[in-house]
Amino acid sequence: MARLLLNLRHVPEDEADDIRALLDRHGFAYFETPPNRWGISVGGIWLRDEEDFEAVQTVLARYQAERAERARAAYAADRRAGRAETLLQRLRRDPLRSLALLAAVALVLYLTLMPFLTLGG
């Protein structure tokens, strides 16, 4: 029976391409399901043979660790070069979104804490 290896929701295309190439290189049989036309399902990469699942998990875990290390190194290089976006730059770039998020956080805190603050009174 087939097993889902990767749900393609929020997966960058380069990562999906890397995983396809990795599966091909190691000789694992897989297939893809296309995204749903209404956006309910975004598709996925499935392993055909469930017996290969643990071996594939090992290969994918190694790939993910290498990808994470490359991303960390790229971010560190961007920080050293001054190209990484700071919180203040992000707030300046999109002030309305920042204010809306701050208001949403304040509302959630208020709704969460209000019963406890009025408990004694």
Provide an overview of this structure.
The chain is mainly alpha-helical and about 120 residues long. It has 2 domains: about 80 residues; about 35 residues. It has 4 helices and 3 strands; from the N terminus they run βαββααα. It has a 3-stranded antiparallel sheet, covered by helices on one side. It is extended and about 65 Å long. The mean pLDDT is about 95.
Total number of strands = 3
Sheet with the most strands: spatial strand order: 1-3-2
Whole-number radius of gyration? 22 Å
Give the total of domains: 2
Shape category: extended
Summing up helix and strand content along with how strands pair, one would put the structural category as mainly alpha
Q: Span between N and C termini?
A: 61 Å
Q: Number of DSSP helices?
A: 4
* Low-pLDDT runs: none
What is the H-and-E element order? EHEEHHH
How confident overall, as mean pLDDT?
Answer: 93
Estimate percent helicity: 55-70%
- Assembly state (oligomeric): single chain
Largest sheet: 3 strands, antiparallel
How much of the residues is beta strand, in percent? Answer: 5-15%
Pfam families: DUF6164
Keywords: Membrane, Transmembrane, Transmembrane helix
InterPro entries: DUF6164
Transmembrane segments: 99-119
Structure at a glance:
By secondary structure, the protein is mostly helical. Helix content is about 60%, strand content about 10%.
List the helices and strands and how they pair.
Layout: E1 3-7, H1 13-26, E2 30-33, E3 44-47, H2 53-81, H3 87-93, H4 95-117
Antiparallel strand pairs: 1-3, 2-3
Keywords:
3 strands; mainly alpha; three-stranded antiparallel β-sheet; 121 residues; 11% strand
